[in-house]
């Protein structure tokens, strides 16, 4: 790839996705690809022209096949990497390995080593040594029952828009159930808790399924048409941590000056507003879709957090702390 063909990361990501759609046995039009990549149809047509003009991509179109390659042996040219870019990829691979266990360990190592061939061997060895010796990721608690093969199944289901059959364990009810789902998104919380956002045919609604609680799974022959009205950003914007909730709550919490510095350091939610006080304390305002996760979060700050509203959250905390007090007094669970 010459200097005139240098791509922005966003365009490169699109070209790689377009290449995958064109190679898929599913018929894709420019409009459908544009919808899947959340860009204008004109952008996709410009990308097609770019691939034809700069890389001689043998892209063809007809009504029965959609877009396809007239020569399936054609491949995107290799992509040059700077030392800094490869370092970022190596760092990302180490992070994924730490957070995802061995799910993609072999594939990650193989991919990074192939990319490393674009640098002198000594540079690559030094990078590997630097990352291994100087950088450590500590993901905290790790999922114990995650089957790494589920990522491959999800990839196939997304690529072909096919439904999944799953046998799912619900921890709250301590029971398993069989579901037919249309997979939409993977929502990864704190780098280690992956949740599949899918339309559940049993419930006729969108639900979240934690991957390690999917006991069995298989891809089905049935296809699904993604709901064009489903807006992932709108669906998830009011979530606090992993809880989406069904209605909006205005939450107001006072924090003492002792813990206020820790609250200021983080953006806990996109809606947050902080009122500063002269004594160093602060008041945090949030608009969230559920209260259970907020309750657990507030409990972590103990007496240094005081919920002012809503009344439902105040009541949840009162009930929880009363039970905790009784259990510590009796030494038994209620």
TrEMBL record:
WCX domain sequence ranges: 249-322
InterPro entries given in the database record: CBASS_pafABC_assoc_protein, PafC-like, WCX_dom, WH-like_DNA-bd_sf, WYL_dom
Keywords annotated in UniProt: Plasmid
Entries under Pfam families matching the protein: WCX, WYL
Domain of life, per lineage: Bacteria
Residue span(s) of domain WYL: 150-218
The protein, known as: Sll5097 protein
Gene source species: Synechocystis sp. (strain ATCC 27184 / PCC 6803 / Kazusa)
Lineage: Bacteria, Bacillati, Cyanobacteriota, Cyanophyceae, Synechococcales
């Amino acid at each position: 790839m010459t200097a005139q063909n240098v791509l922005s990361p966003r365009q490169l990501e699109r070209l790689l996705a377009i290449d995958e759609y064109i190679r898929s046995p599913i018929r894709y039009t420019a409009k459908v690809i544009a919808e899947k990549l959340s860009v204008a149809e004109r952008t996709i047509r410009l990308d097609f022209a770019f691939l034809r003009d700069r890389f001689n991509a043998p892209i063809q179109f007809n009504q029965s096949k959609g877009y396809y390659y007239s020569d399936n042996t054609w491949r995107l040219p290799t992509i040059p990497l700077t030392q800094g870019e490869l370092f970022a990829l190596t760092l990302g691979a180490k992070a994924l390995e730490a957070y995802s266990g061995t799910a993609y360990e072999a594939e990650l190592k193989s991919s990074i080593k192939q990319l490393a061939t674009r640098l002198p061997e000594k540079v690559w060895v030094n990078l590997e040594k630097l990352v291994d010796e100087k950088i450590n990721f500590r993901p905290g608690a790790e999922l114990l029952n995650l089957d790494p093969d589920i990522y491959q199944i999800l990839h196939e289901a997304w690529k072909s828009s096919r439904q999944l059959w799953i046998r799912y364990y619900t921890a709250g009810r301590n029971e398993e159930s069989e579901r037919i789902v249309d997979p939409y998104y993977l929502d990864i919380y704190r780098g280690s808790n992956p949740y599949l956002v899918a339309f559940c045919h049993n419930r006729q609604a969108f639900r979240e399924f934690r991957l390690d609680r999917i006991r069995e799974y298989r891809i089905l022959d049935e296809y699904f048409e993604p709901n064009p009205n489903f807006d992932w950003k709108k669906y998830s914007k009011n979530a606090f941590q992993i809880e989406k909730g069904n209605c909006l709550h205005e939450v107001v919490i006072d924090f003492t000056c002792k813990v206020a510095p820790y609250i200021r350091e983080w953006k806990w939610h996109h809606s947050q507003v902080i009122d500063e006080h002269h004594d160093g304390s602060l008041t945090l305002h949030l608009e969230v879709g559920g209260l259970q996760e907020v309750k657990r979060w507030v409990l972590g700050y103990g007496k240094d957090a005081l919920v002012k509203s809503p009344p439902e959250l105040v009541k949840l905390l009162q009930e929880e702390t009363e039970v905790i007090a009784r259990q510590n007094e009796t030494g038994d669970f209620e």
